[in-house]
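step: validate -> pass
step: tokenize input -> pass
step: predict -> running
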Amino acid sequence: MSAISIVIPVYNESAIIRENTKTILQELSVIEENEFSLLFVDDGSSDSTVDIINTLRESYQNIEILCLNRNFGKEPAIFAGLQVAQGKAVIVMDVDLQHPPSLIREMVALWQQGFDVVEAFKNIRNKETLCYRLSVVIFYKLFGYLTQIDISNQTDFKLLDRKVVDQYCSLHEKVRFFRGLVNWFGFKSARIPFNVPNRQHGSSKWTISKLLRLSISALSGFTSKPLHIISFLGIACFAMSLVIGGIALHDKFTGNAAVGFTTVIMLILMTGSVLMFGLWIIGIYLEQIFIEVKGRPEFIVNVSKSSIIKTAKTG
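step: predict -> pass
step: emit ->
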């Protein structure tokens, strides 16, 4: 029998948590040969969410709760849960049932077949505004282009083998993007499509501002390419300065330029070019700092396929 932990980050979910937890437990009860435990990570709820979970704990022995001191955000809540979870595999899911618990059986079956990561991805999204859908598409396209990592329609609803959890928890970086990092590891993975059901009660805690901050953190945490925009601007500025400088000199020698105009133009162009190249050089060093301070391992060894691993020190 395999022990599997289910990490569920929650924040002000008092309206739905009681009934939805019972629904999750009902789905788990029909999955044989596995022992499940639910770990709720309360992200500083200000309603009665914690009280309801503690009431559920009196009726169900396989429920635990980890309370954060304040609202830190979903990514820190997931990280906290993964650090505490003890199962041979860990499932991360939401409590609003938009991550269908009926998929857990299939996720566990694929894990038992040898997949280290089983991730559910959205096949058909629920009712969302056109602006929200467009923003999501733009983010996925931009993230894929800049990082070469495809996370289109992926969710945080994932099953991770213990070695994946340990690898995730070993990272030193503070700002994390869960679904991006799991994909970046490159472990053997399987995907399960699902249609997102409508939320039965309450509303999503994700505001536009929170999603925007998450998008910026995700992009800045996985690529330094925006720093190279300075490089292209510097090259473009230098090329333009050559053209405009040539025209100014031509007007000077042909007597068509105003007195002092050529000198001013040349000084502005030279100063602008020097500044842009200076920013380019600073950007190169910032990129190195960006990479170093994260402390990510240079490589990850596939232990199951390697004949020797002691000499290959990861990170």
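step: describe -> Residues 311-315 have pLDDT under 50 and may be disordered.
step: cleanup -> pass
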